[in-house]
Amino acid sequence: MRIVLGVGGGIAAYKVASLLRLFTEAGHNVTVIPTEAATRFVGTATWEALSGNPVSNSVFDGVHQVNHVRLGHEADLVVIAPATADLLARAATGQAGDLLTNTLLMAHGPVLFAPAMHTEMWQHPATQANVETLRSRGAAVLEPATGRLTGADSGPGRLPEPEAIFDAAIALVQGQTDFQLPLAGRTVTISAGGTREPLDPVRFLGNRSSGKQGVALAVAARNAGATVRLLAAHMEVPPPPGVEVVPVETALQLREAALATAGDSDVFIMSAAVADFRPAVVSDTKIKKRDDSADPVITLVRNPDILQELVEVRNAAGPSGQHRLIVGFAAETGDSQGDVLAYAEAKLQRKGCDLLVVNHVGSDKVFGQDTNSVVILSRSGSGPQEASGTKAEVSAAIISRIGDELNHLALN
């Protein structure tokens, strides 16, 4: 596929290099057209090296090839990222002052804009009118992500992650009309990994969680356009780029972080393996093994139920909390008293969360593996949904279901 990648003059231009890499690694032929301002952030040498094609922003380069006409005619797809407020305005008013805006006027194929600018610029009536104009003419304009901007402030206006723009672009070419990122503008907080409860400065009580499923969920939520916050307990895999990471170790630390972030989370996914119990007393020094001393007796106390507390806090918020979605995970084993789903259904009702993702665990199942098989239970009355495959594929199914549930909440 022949792609024109237009780069606007914003600080987010550096992230577009990763988007270019995604296109080229997928086998597409990409011509990069930066604006003059964009070259102040990322030079043409970078775009040429990554694309393998010459780069220009002037209509007077390669005049014999009539580039200001040819590039738009030949492109199967035009992607503009970052689409600054200025570039959106020039596109909406049909200006043709440089090679990129000329190409936009000549484009016959689909055009995708990925905006990035300060919140006030994005929310300004002029920008919103320009976006509506472009959409009314058939262009696709993504919603910007919400998160940290160039300065110390945060808000809507952040460039969606390159993987999310890539997915939207491919969906657009394939004729999908629902390519808009399902979690655009949403904040999703995900707990991942296993908590560790210290016995002494050396030893701890832990579990087999690797964090792989939580990280895969973070990637899927990020690619769906969400601003993602990862409450990371012990994990055997690194956190993904493009997400905020809050490190925690114990269940009490995770509880503190969860309650502190619940208020600004549209979705909270409790996928961490949280210890049910912790030692009642933590020794300040290493517990010694001596021949002349008795075996130590470790007394355990119950850890707080973080998932249930999140539901209680949400419910206590009244109308302001009614559109927050809380997703729990249940790592279950069956026994003589009931099977996995029976225990999970009871847990769903007891906890009061909106969705419960259930998996059957064991010494060789789920923990540390690259594949998973889950059943998603819902309090909304919809039937159980099964998902299996790699943890990335399972995560994509969970995030898709979350998008459906959010739409259901918005209608009620």
Give a structural overview.
The structure is a single chain. The chain is of the alpha/beta class and 412 residues long. It has 2 domains: 2-173, 3-Layer(aba) Sandwich (Rossmann fold); 187-284 and 296-410, Rossmann fold. The protein has helices at residues 13-25, 44-51, 67-74, 85-92, 99-106, 119-123, 125-136, 162-173, 212-223, 251-261, 306-316, 340-351, 391-410; strands at residues 2-7, 29-34, 77-83, 111-115, 140-141, 145-148, 154-158, 187-192, 197-198, 204-205, 227-232, 244-247, 267-270, 277-279, 300-302, 325-332, 355-360, 371-378, 385-390. The strands form 5 sheets. Strands 12-11-8-13-16-17-18-19 form an 8-stranded mixed beta sheet, with helices on both faces. The protein has a 5-stranded parallel beta sheet with strand order 2-1-3-4-5, with helices on both faces. Strand 16, helix 12 and strand 17 (355-360) form a beta-alpha-beta unit. Helix 1 crosses helix 8 and helix 9 packs across helix 13 (391-410). The relative contact order is 0.09.
